[in-house]
Design goal:
This is AI-2E family transporter. One of its GO terms (cellular component) is membrane. Keywords: Membrane, Transmembrane, Transmembrane helix. It is a multi-pass membrane protein. The chain is mainly α and 352 residues long. It has 16 helices and no strands. The chain has one domain. Helix 11 packs antiparallel against helix 12.
Amino acid sequence: MTVPSNDSKSSFGRWIGFAIIVISLYVTWQIRQILLILFMAIVLANALDILVETIRRRGIKRGIAILITIVVLLLSLVGLFGIIIPSFLGQFQQLVNLVPRGINQLTTNINQLITRLDPDLVAVLPTVDQVIAQLQPILQQIASRGLNIFYSSLGTLLSSILLIALTLMLLANPVPYRNCLIRLFPAFYRQRVDEILKMCNQALRGWLKEITFDMSLMTLFSLIGLSIFGIPLALTQAILTGILTFIPNIGIGLSVIPPLAIALLEEPWKPPAVILLYFYCYLAIQKLDNNPRFAKLSTYPAVLLPGFILLGQLFFGTIFGILGLFLAVPLLIVSQIWLKEVLIKDVLNKWE
């Protein structure tokens, strides 16, 4: 009877490990929508936990602080859907009707400008229709995936209830869920995983504070500026600007389209004024974020390069659609920490 050698045993063990990794990746890909809901619940739970910790600093027990936070959240939702949303939807419908008119006016102005240029230069430059045709496949793919995820996950009442339930469970008692995740790793690495999870939690909280700060300022600044310029539907556009600020880089570009389109229907000085308004608002927020006085509020330990953010938005937007664009930065923050701590520090830096 032949006894298997140690080399054959180790080779068999490596193949088993490789097969487990492949199967795990396949299962993860198949349940990616569920994992996205779970990640959204983690982000929301972290956001609510910031309020819980703020209340606890006043000497209130965590259970009572969580109850107060839930009551505040419910009252905010009632006020949002009962007071703000109806008026917002009414003005938003007007905005939807005005923006195409402004875009048509912009197209007319561009065509008039093209007729005044050198014909040889015009032949080299791509037309507006060509640019739109090149962007259309990417936009359609992102939109279709966004709609699929919306209708298959967040579009149903059951999934919304699941998201809220997961958020409240993670907020009320996150330790058991954290321990379950840690136990998925080998015993010798569990302490290290716990450290990495703490880093991710700290980074997400810092980013949530920063993005809330930026969204509030962009809403306030755009509201004041658009009101001074006399741009119609200033409040609705300011709220929309604040929401889109959640998407770095791309959001500020998308948020300027509605006020710019409407400004094209007004006096000639208003379009450049709107562009300058949003440009200086963006610069002001960047300076405030880098100001040492706001360091505790606006900075977080995970530093993302702008190029990586754009690539991450394209990657997660292609996979998850609109929700991927909104959650691209927190997904990148968590991914960067895991890659840095596990792959670089624990594997590559110790690889001899």
